[in-house]
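Notebook B, p. 112. Complex prediction, attempt 2.
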Amino acid sequence: MNPRRRFCYNKAGRSKKVKDGQSRFQVEVAFISSLSDHIERYIKALLDQAGQGGLEIRRTELAELFECVPSQINYVLKTRFNSERGYIVESRRGGGGYIRIVRLEPRHPQGICSWIYQAIGDSIGMDEAEALLVRLLDHDYLSRQDALVIRSLLAEETEQLKPAYAGRVRASLLRSMLILLLHGSGNGR
Amino acid sequence: MNPRRRFCYNKAGRSKKVKDGQSRFQVEVAFISSLSDHIERYIKALLDQAGQGGLEIRRTELAELFECVPSQINYVLKTRFNSERGYIVESRRGGGGYIRIVRLEPRHPQGICSWIYQAIGDSIGMDEAEALLVRLLDHDYLSRQDALVIRSLLAEETEQLKPAYAGRVRASLLRSMLILLLHGSGNGR
DNA sequence: GTTTTGTTGGTCAAGAAAGGTCAGATCCCA
DNA sequence: TGGGATCTGACCTTTCTTGACCAACAAAAC
């Protein structure tokens, strides 16, 4: 393995230390310092330029740009561009492969999604689910009709399950339906 | 092999890159980039124009249009226009040979929701789910964005599960999300 | 009516071209 | 100084593209 000149990209963007002798402490801004953080910022900058359709990147190119291994890109995507944070990542392997990143426009105050993730957790009971729906209803994050449909689907889909699984499946279902409503197109087509 | 000027057809249709210097990545729409994808889109465009009876093509002609080997066309047909995705392909060899492609409307006496229930069943694999989404997309029952979100949620919610449960949970999730979109307040279908 | 020849489309497997996964090494901060 | 966050590299899977060879059908030749 040839010794790599790492962090090449960062020459411009990383935090600077003050010249030797002047001070032993970092004085410049840019606390953000890890490679992952830089890749994250770079992708976000690209996303800002991109339209609704999102952004398409080549894993290898990006890795070359930052002089890191390709799997580093996966790490960044997994930790920073997951759906809890409001992103969707799709990819395809093989010739013409790509990674597409879409930022879901928060049609509601950001934070509501991660709040939902937290509130639901790994498993949730019917009562808690109901309480959560009521709460979302009260705050107008949810329409009456959607709440009705969700309620009925939750019941229908979990009634046959053993309690142990029911809670988990219910959590999955509730989470998915809510996220879909919050992020989906709102009107088909 | 003479160096081929590939993607001739695509001159007009392919995605634009941002001006040099701005970014090395595609930021505009229409990302789809492989030859197969272009052939797929071309055929679908033809299908949209064609009536109920479907579309008839010459394998060789199409291959010439895209400057590829004829078997590439078979690949596209096999992977994108199979019966799982709701297409029927028949062909005849010899002089006057042809390939006919027919797109089947997903129909059920009781309507699209019943069709969905039936198509999903108790358990469904990721591939089947994908095919179903594509089919609904092709027929405009679903928006791109919703499909994107559903796909990503399906993957996320089932990735940790043992295959035996994953199929069932996936079925529940897919069914619920689709029914919610169709019956919820978002659109009146 | 056969046989031959030309015209189409079909199959399959090899190789190329992406991206994915995962365990272990490292880094870094409380 | 221990644990979580990062990084790396070896190895894997998926998807696409190509070309050699095969099979079916039609029209011409016999």
